[in-house]
Fold Two-component system OmpR family response regulator.
Amino acid sequence: MTEGARILVVDDEHYLADLAANALRRAGFQAEVAGTGGAALAVGLSRRPDLLVLDLRLAKGPGGSLADQLRRFGCSIPVLFLLGRDATQQDKITGLSVPGADYLGKPFSLGELVARCRAALRRSTGAGSPLLSCAGLRLDEDAHLVLRDETRVDLSPTEFRLLRHLLTHQNRVLTKQHILDHVWEYDYAGEDSVVPTYISYLRRKVDARREPMIHTIPRTGYVLRPPTPPAGPS
């Protein structure tokens, strides 16, 4: 189980770090924030987090050295490196050279951050890939595979993230703003009409010629729920 895991977010962009930590807390994790490598080392050694979310280019030194220091003190911990827009291929290689590490480019959606943290924690514990499902709809995160009634549904990366978020919160009505905050990049500044547009794309693929599962709740938002069973004989 990954829920309840301790995650330490290390980034000197304080707004981003707080945003990421709050998203992780809402997803059921215990998340703390540190703005420097020194503060992160102190927290890491005292509280032994299960995962480190670390900006590779901290203002006061390369992020990789912090993971190395924690390991030297006997704190074995997987790392999800955050890479800025100006990250080079060498930055990615540096991140992946750390055992148990992955990387996520900025800007990222908060939903993608949560999903990547879950995947990193599963890998560190040897747990299998989770299947999100609702009636005949199944989503395999690690295989990036979606099936509806055993038929493969091909989705774009954004459609996949949107469906994953709807499945994670199935039977719960999600507002347009909630979906925008969790599926799109945290600094997305475009029109919120992108949400109904992608809901429409997703319906065409997931609900095509089938009983609908993705519903619009007027003036409120969207919900994914199992198809309504046919009425029995009167």
In short: The domain at 131-224 is CATH 1.10.10.10 (Arc Repressor Mutant, subunit A). The first helix runs from residue 14 to 26. The chain has eight helices and 13 strands. The chain has a mean pLDDT of 84.
